[in-house]
Write a structure and sequence with these properties.
This protein is of the alpha/beta class. It is built from 17 helices and 17 strands.
């Protein structure tokens, strides 16, 4: 299986020791009295996780899972850092809260390559595009949880009212925006605090801002792929065809989306139930369509990179083999997926790590959101899965770089700077920051 390695220079020479006492049942190599119990830290609601853990425990005699509920993403991160530092009560499975290479650089994760690699080599167990996100320096540190397929949903009623054709390319989106603007309608929303549109466009173009070359990081915010993405963003901003509604006031944001004044959303399957629940005026008016492509694209591509992909296996877990096996079961087995079913919503947790999620696609599509267009959703979603690619590499300073990018993005959408100028700034900032950390870098 060919995979693009997501690597971390400082991690390649790192030797990750396995501390004892991480999970109940004794240390690695010790003969346990009774079943081994693995702690699974997550902040997901119990109704989603408890049935899956119960199914695991029902079907496994020698290994059991115990869920330890975390308050939230930041709380889990702080608790894990404290546990790894102390070497006490370290869990063996943790819901991801950051990019795997960065966590490896912190010394928080265990090398599970010898245990995961046989599974990764199995045909049709993991979808290929789910694997890069759990790698660093050519080694595995987490179990792939995969990605949510990306597509677009448009308010087809508004599009039709003004005689605007659904977009197939990003240039079509800009053209549609110009026409809709005449009627007081914005084609998309670009929140000032969220540069994900730019990041996703770079990924869709097949680009990455970081690349590891031997022991040297190469940084390139001004690649052809990056500039192609920036050009689309700049045209959207310059033509005043996008809104800038913030995500911080979620009810106001949803009301705006529902109003018919903004009519195109890039989205993923996990977001659909929230729209179904909260839309009042436009319920049934939306149509799922393929993610718009670059006009010169040689093939249809959606982005597969998920910043928080991977069920983490922390440094200090004493049962790496059992943790890996449990993590693989949680993310690939039919029993685990079926156990996630919610009777009230009639939905399963999206099985993003497997090559063929088709048995569960229909349940991911709400009954009323797409109205007469609901039958189109299945093909749109499966096409997004099949065409997903992960070209994205994350450097050792990406957390700080992303914060700087957020500041630049806010200036882009308010026309204080251009997308090109922001990328030039990010190039200088990122290289200087890596050099200040004594990382071998070129750019």
């Amino acid at each position: 299986m060919n995979r693009k390695r997501v690597a971390l220079a400082s991690a390649t020479a790192m030797v990750l020791s396995v501390a004892l006492g991480a999970c109940s049942g004794g240390g690695s190599g010790a003969k346990a009295e009774g079943p081994v119990t693995l702690q699974w830290w997550t902040w997901d609601e119990a109704r989603y996780t408890e049935p899956v853990a119960a199914k695991f425990n029902e079907t496994h005699a020698d290994v059991k899972i115990k869920i330890v509920k975390q308050a939230d993403n930041p709380g889990a991160a702080a608790n894990l850092r404290n546990a790894v530092a102390s070497g006490k009560d370290v869990p063996c499975l943790v819901k991801n809260f950051s990019e795997v290479p960065g966590l490896v650089g912190e010394g928080l994760l265990a090398d599970i390559t010898q245990y995961l690699e046989p599974y990764a080599k199995k045909k049709d167990l993991f979808i290929e595009s789910s694997v890069p996100a759990v790698e660093a320096g050519g080694k595995y540190y987490a179990i792939p949880t995969g990605f949510q397929p990306s597509f677009m949903m448009i308010n087809r009623k508004v599009y039709d009212t003004y005689g605007v054709k659904p977009p197939k390319t990003w240039n079509d989106v800009i053209t549609a925006g110009k026409e809709l603007k005449k009627h007081g309608v914005q084609v998309m929303n670009l929140a000032g605090e969220d540069p994900s549109t730019l990041v996703n466009l770079v990924q869709q173009a097949g680009g990455s801002w970081y690349k590891l070359d031997g022991d040297k990081w190469r940084v390139d915010f001004l690649s052809s792929e990056s500039l192609k993405a920036a050009d689309i963003v700049q045209q959207l901003v310059d033509n005043d065809v996008v809104a800038n509604q913030t995500y911080t006031d979620r009810p106001a944001l949803i009301n705006y989306f529902d109003s018919g004044k903004m009519v195109s959303l890039t989205t993923q399957t996990w977001q659909l139930p929230n729209y179904e629940l909260n839309y009042k005026k436009s319920l049934g008016d939306w149509e799922p369509i393929d993610l718009p492509q670059f006009s010169d694209a040689s093939s249809f591509v959606t982005q597969a990179h998920n910043a928080n992909s991977g069920l983490l296996v922390p440094k200090g877990c004493a049962r790496l083999k059992e943790a890996t096996e449990a993590g693989v079961w949680l993310n690939t087995s039919k029993d685990a997926i079926d156990a996630s079913y919610q009777k009230d919503t009639k939905q399963y947790t999206w099985p993003g790590a497997i090559p063929d999620p088709s048995p569960w696609v229909d349940s991911s599509v709400p009954d009323k959101l797409f109205g007469e267009y609901k039958p189109e959703a299945r093909d749109v979603i499966l096409k997004a899965v099949e065409s997903a690619r992960d070209s994205w590499a994350v450097g050792p300073n990406y957390t700080g770089v992303f914060a700087e990018l957020q500041d630049q993005w806010a200036k882009i959408v308010t026309k204080e700077t251009t997308a090109r100028q922001a990328l030039e700034h990010m190039q200088t900032f990122t290289v200087a920051d890596l050099k200040s950390k004594h990382v071998n870098v070129e750019g």
